[in-house]
Structures are given as structure tokens and as C-alpha cells.
Design goal:
seven-stranded antiparallel beta sheet; five-stranded antiparallel beta sheet; Uridine Diphospho-n-acetylenolpyruvylglucosamine Reductase, domain 2; 3 domains; 24% strand; alpha+beta; 13 helices
């Protein structure tokens, strides 16, 4: 029972008092639960994936359904509280929690309903990619999502969403058919191409700027249950040759196939000799949504790129491949990312990457090179708030380490590469890869300048007071 008045954060630097009676009435109106700093599960509830983020909210509202979300938004607005929205808490910037104020926690809302005849899925915002894949693959269906099964569907989708199926079926937002959204006024509206179309445009890439999505409706496609894929590992001494051949090879890949590259120190993978563990390597990750015979025909030539130190290729369940990188992205580690979009892999960029890996500060750090194009590039840039359709490659400098003492070294490493690679980049950036210190890249980077005007108009209509501002923020002009 809440026995005392609480002084709570409204906006940074300001506070106001919320009475015990109003908190008690608010808590009684929840189907979920209210977690406060004196609750036994408070520390667990405020912890998110990126361990560099250590924030202490005044309250965490663990929502059980849409009614709880509406109730929380209305209470926060009435009391002028600072608000953060948490799905799975996986976003690099750490905006899922706040110091003071209220966290609206959606992680218990995990329902996934599939209609295999209509090939549609209705997904609540607390579901992870693993939850979605588990349900859709029961019917041999999938929608394009990311590559880490513990990522939340909500944050991934609102920022754009891409993965192994993107070249074949587009971005996650290209497969979003509709959504239920709780607005800044605490009202529930539906957004689709035919209903609140401006809001629907905005949530397809505009992040959490316009409301809280409590239900996503996705188009599904026949995928799996078996796919062809796996890893090929080459010595770093052959990195330039491997990347140059990779650059040429991907120009002829069909949309059903994609090949990504990871440069890092070799983890202790079971198919690698112990002598390779901890050495610098180039890992080529391969995916083909069709059968093994055609997959081997497409992927097989990569084995001739250089000396294969280890190979793990073959037919496997789609759900297994979607979890293949989970061990490299476990929660509890300290993370900092920097990212660029590229139209091509120039020789200068390849040299910059090679020089950067030689300085890698932690065995957990890596540079991830994502192949885009295909169906994604055929969507008109202005069709969704995600506008960087010209990116042929997305490169994420994933700095990851264990202790606070390593913070400066690992962050500086990521920033140094970012600066050195900038001359070869398009200037665009994937919003979900932006850390919390990159607000200057929102306009012109995450969103092309011609889209900012429309994003601002949507913000003016749906959140004119910037109630939802703990995000890569689109500021209202009103």
C-alpha cells in the first residue's frame, strides 16, 4: 500500500508532489502492477539491455493491456510527469527508462495472434522477435524483423526494422498493415492506410514520437520452416581480398539471398579450431530463404574468397538462424554504437575498416556490415517515415565491453571509426542504431530533410506538447 506523498519528476530539473491518495487510486485502477523504488522487484524492472544505462524512475507501471496504457498516460499528463516507454528495453540509447518520472512498461503485453489463412499477425508491444517467430513459424510464415531474438518488436518496428528477409519482403514497416495507438491525450485510435493515415505514415519509422502502439498488425509471408544459411570464417590477413570479392559478388544476388560481414575477434565457436579463438577474423553470414541445393549454389562460391578457417553452413530451421547471434548480444554488457549508411563499399572504406579492427579494444567489439537493397530499395522514399532507401549497406560499429573502467577506451574507438568512415558515407543513419548523444543526426541523418517537415506536422497534430520526447525526438513547431 502507498502510504506517503511522492515528489516526482515532471520535466528535467522540475518536480511536483503527487499525493498518496491519488497514487493509491491510480494503482487501484490498474490490471497490471505499480512498481516503486521500495518494491522488491524495482531494480530488476528498471534494468534494460544496455548496462551503461542506470536510471531510477519514480514509478514503473507494468501494463497488462491497452486500458492500463491509457490509464498511465492520462495520469502522467494530469500530473505533468516525465514519461519513458519501455517495450523489451533493447534500444541502444536507453530511452526505455528515465531518471524520475514514470516508465510505462509494456513488457508483459506479449500476445501474438496469427491468422494463417489471411497471413496476418497481431502482436502486442512487449513481444520479442523470438515470440513472433515462434507463433508465425508454426504455420510456415514470417514477417521481416531483426536478427536477435530478444529484441522487442515495438522498438524495432517503429524505427524501421530490417533483417535477413528485408531484401525479399522489405522493411518491417513495409509489412505493417495497421496499429492501435494510445495518443498523448490517453485516447486509443487506429492507424492504417485508410484511417489516420498521417499517423500511420509517422509510426512507420518515426520512432516513439507520436504515441504508444499497443497492437501491431503485420503482413506475413511463406518462409521456412527450413532455410539455408550459416557462417564462413576467414583470417583477417585476407580481409581486403575477402571484402573486395564480397563487394562484387553481392551485386548479382537474388532478393531471396543476403550476405553480411562481421569483423571482430573470433569467439569460441565450436566449429573453429582453438588456435583461431581470440584472433581477428572476417565472418561472412549467409542466408537464403529457399532450398539447400540452390542455397549451396549461391553461397558456395564464397568459400573461394580465401582461406576458410571454419565453416557452419547447411539447412536449418528459420527460428534457429534467428537466434544464431543471440550469444553475442546478451543483456548485462556495456554497449555504445555508431553507424553509417553507404551507397557502396569503396576501397577507402575497406581500408578504414581494416585499420579500425587492428585497434579493437575488447573481444566483444565488432563492425557489422549489412547488405540492403532488393525489395527495400524499391519502396518510394516518401512512402514511410523511414526514408533512407538509398542505403546499399548499413554499417554498425558495435562497441561492447564488460566493466565501467573500459568505457572511455571502447567509446573512443567507436567514435574514431565513425569519424574516419564519414567521408565515404551517405550521411544517412538508421535511427535504431543511434546512441543518446546523436540528437544532431535526427534531421538530415535519420530522416531526410524533405521528410522533417511532414514529421513535424504529424507531431504537431498528435503530440503538440512533446509529451513523448524520450526518443530521437521530432520537436513540434507549435
Amino acid at each position: 500500500m502507498i502510504m506517503a506523498d511522492h515528489t516526482m519528476t515532471s520535466t528535467p530539473g522540475t518536480q511536483n508532489k503527487v499525493t498518496a491518495e491519488s497514487l493509491q487510486a491510480f494503482s487501484a485502477g490498474l490490471r497490471g502492477s505499480l512498481i516503486t523504488p521500495d518494491s522488491p522487484d524495482y531494480d530488476k524492472a528498471r534494468t534494460i539491455w544496455n548496462a551503461t544505462v542506470d536510471k531510477r524512475p519514480d514509478m514503473i507501471v507494468r501494463c497488462a493491456g491497452t486500458a492500463d496504457v491509457m490509464h498511465a498516460v492520462k495520469f502522467a499528463r494530469e500530473n505533468s510527469l516525465l514519461v519513458a516507454i519501455k517495450g523489451a528495453g533493447h534500444n541502444i540509447a536507453g530511452n526505455a527508462v528515465c531518471n524520475g518520472g514514470m516508465v510505462i512498461d509494456l513488457s508483459a503485453m506479449k500476445s501474438v495472434h496469427v491468422d494463417p489463412v489471411k497471413q496476418r499477425a497481431w502482436v502486442e508491444p512487449g513481444a520479442t522477435l523470438g515470440d513472433v517467430n515462434h507463433e508465425t513459424q508454426a504455420f510456415g510464415l514470417a514477417t521481416p524483423t531483426g536478427i536477435n531474438s530478444t529484441t522487442g518488436i515495438a522498438g524495432l518496428t517503429l524505427g524501421g526494422g530490417f533483417g535477413w528477409l528485408t531484401r525479399q519482403y522489405g522493411m518491417t514497416v513495409d509489412n505493417l498493415v495497421g496499429a492501435d495507438v494510445v495518443t498523448a491525450e490517453g485516447k486509443l485510435v487506429h492507424a492504417s492506410a485508410n484511417e489516420n493515415a498521417d499517423l500511420f505514415w509517422g509510426i512507420r519509422g518515426g520512432g516513439g514520437n507520436f504515441g504508444v502502439v499497443t497492437n501491431f498488425e503485420f503482413q506475413l509471408h511463406p518462409v521456412g520452416p527450413m532455410i539455408y544459411g550459416g557462417l564462413l570464417v576467414f583470417p583477417f590477413s585476407e580481409a581486403k581480398s575477402v571484402l573486395t570479392q564480397y563487394r562484387k559478388m553481392v551485386t548479382t544476388l537474388p532478393d531471396e539471398a543476403t550476405v553480411w560481414c562481421v569483423l571482430r575477434k573470433a569467439p569460441p565457436l565450436p566449429f573453429l579450431p582453438e588456435s583461431v579463438h581470440g584472433t581477428e577474423v572476417v565472418v561472412v553470414a549467409n542466408f537464403y530463404s529457399g532450398g539447400a541445393a540452390e542455397g549451396e549454389k549461391l553461397i558456395g562460391p564464397i568459400k573461394k574468397f580465401g582461406t576458410v578457417l571454419g565453416e557452419f553452413l547447411g539447412e536449418m530451421p528459420y527460428t534457429a538462424w534467428q537466434q544464431a547471434f543471440d550469444p553475442l548480444l546478451t543483456p548485462g554488457m556495456r554497449n555504445y554504437w555508431k553507424s553509417h549508411n553507404f551507397a557502396e563499399l569503396s576501397d577507402g572504406l575497406i581500408d578504414t575498416v581494416i585499420n579500425t579492427i587492428h585497434k579493437i579494444p575488447s573481444p566483444h567489439c565488432e563492425i557489422f556490415l549489412v547488405l540492403m537493397g532488393g525489395a527495400d530499395s524499391r519502396v518510394p522514399p516518401q512512402a514511410t517515415a523511414y526514408t533512407n532507401r538509398d542505403a546499399k549497406f548499413i554499417m554498425n560499429v558495435h562497441s561492447r565491453w564488460e566493466t565501467p573502467q573500459e568505457d572511455k577506451t571502447c567509446i573512443d574507438w567507436a567514435r574514431e571509426f565513425f569519424n574516419n568512415a564519414a567521408p565515404y558515407a551517405t550521411g544517412g543513419v538508421y535511427v535504431n542504431f543511434m546512441p543518446d548523444d546523436e540528437s544532431d543526426r535526427v534531421s538530415g541523418g535519420a530522416y531526410k530533410s524533405e521528410s522533417i517537415s511532414k514529421l513535424t506536422q504529424v507531431k504537431n497534430k498528435w503530440d503538440p506538447t512533446n509529451f513523448f520526447h524520450l526518443n530521437q525526438n521530432i520537436k513540434p513547431s507549435v
